[in-house]
Backbone:
């Protein structure tokens, strides 16, 4: 059986790693990279660090408006599908690469499986919510990461196409956590356990200059050093709006890190402050408290279990929210136990359309 994985953005390379490993020896696995992310530290570094085979094709689409970017991917992926004729197309998460891969495949009657199906923020302003809802309703097989995702899909009439497999990001996180344990990443001048890790990249937080300024000023009020790992979107928009991300040296701004370094940094941090979906969950799995700069989250289990607090305005309160009392310890495993990628390959093999 031939499976074509379509990926394009940083979190998808992380999800691809355990899937590529689980596919080995069981299915023929091809990888198409749209080129949505192209900087070395947003793309190639992930393939190298996580031992992912090089993509069979890279469309080199790059950045652009949503319409232009998605359209270029659609055209390129159609050709890839005609040439490779896979038994399954596997799409990941919620990016423009996911939607383009899904559309290209269904028009050619190639079955589509959606990994990380059923997540919902119920915020239709988010491009990610648009992409994931459309993909779920178009795909043939929905690989749900959690019971909550399963419930969302049932409510939308998609239960028959759904299989609960667990979260593949958890597979890779647990593996990397164990590999880096006991070797804290050195941060010049800052002892392990004393700093906070921050990321901001969602359009809702970066595109309005007043909001972005309020967020970085909020970060500067947090007690303890804040390390802001700046996504290229954040750097670009801060520069355009004349915003000093370092707030006169009180926030330490650095480039994005590779995956093992990020996991290591977070594992040894006091807390995480982010608008990333993946990082909220990684913080929980590493049992590091998280503050999420959004009105809602797809990973509701992190909030329900007390490890994540949402902050959507009044960013001058960030210092207080971040220093809240620690959450109650838990051994809950809402994201599975590290076997999701194998379960996903099992589902592809057993649900292969006639
Ligand atoms: C995308 C995904 C989002 C995911 C995120 C992870 C969509 C709609 N959004 O958002 O779901 O959480 O990736 O990072 O697909 N850029 C670079 N170098 C790169 C990549 C991007 O400089 O390697 C810059 C581009 O100039 C662009 C900006 O970052 O202006 C945004 O990139 P884009 O791929 O459009 O969306 P992301 O914000 O990364």
Residues:
């Amino acid at each position: 059986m031939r499976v074509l994985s379509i990926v394009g953005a940083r979190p998808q390379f992380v999800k691809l790693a355990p899937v590529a490993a689980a596919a080995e020896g069981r299915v023929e696995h091809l990888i198409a990279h749209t080129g949505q992310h192209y900087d070395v530290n947003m793309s190639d570094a992930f393939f190298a660090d996580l031992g992912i085979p090089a993509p069979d094709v890279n469309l080199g689409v790059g950045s652009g408006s949503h319409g232009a970017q998605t359209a270029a991917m659609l055209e390129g992926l159609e050709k890839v599908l005609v040439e490779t004729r896979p038994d399954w197309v596997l799409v990941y998460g919620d990016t423009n690469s996911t939607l383009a891969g899904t559309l290209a495949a269904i028009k050619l009657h190639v079955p589509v499986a959606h990994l990380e199906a059923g997540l919902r923020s119920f915020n239709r302003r988010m491009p990610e919510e648009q992409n994931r809802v459309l993909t779920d309703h178009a795909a043939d097989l929905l690989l749900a990461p959690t019971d909550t995702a399963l419930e969302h899909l049932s409510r939308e009439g998609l239960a028959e196409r759904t299989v609960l497999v667990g979260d593949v990001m958890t597979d890779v996180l647990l593996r990397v956590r164990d590999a880096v344990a006991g070797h804290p990443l050195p941060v010049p001048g800052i002892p392990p356990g004393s700093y906070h890790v921050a990321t901001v990249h969602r359009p809702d937080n970066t595109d309005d200059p007043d909001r972005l300024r309020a967020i970085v000023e909020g970060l500067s009020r947090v007690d303890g050093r804040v390390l802001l790992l700046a996504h290229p979107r954040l750097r670009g928009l801060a520069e355009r709006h004349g915003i000093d991300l370092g707030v006169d040296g009180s926030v330490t701004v650095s480039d994005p890190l590779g995956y093992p370094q990020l996991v290591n940094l977070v594992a040894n941090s006091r807390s995480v402050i982010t608008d990333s979906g993946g990082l909220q969950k990684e913080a929980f799995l590493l049992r590091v408290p998280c503050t999420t700069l959004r009105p809602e989250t797809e990973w509701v289990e992190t909030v329900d279990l007390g490890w994540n607090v949402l902050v959507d305005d009044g960013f001058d309160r960030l210092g207080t929210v971040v220093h809240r009392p620690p959450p109650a310890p838990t051994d809950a495993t809402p994201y599975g136990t590290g076997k999701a990628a194998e379960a996903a390959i099992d589902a592809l093999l057993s649900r292969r359309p006639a």
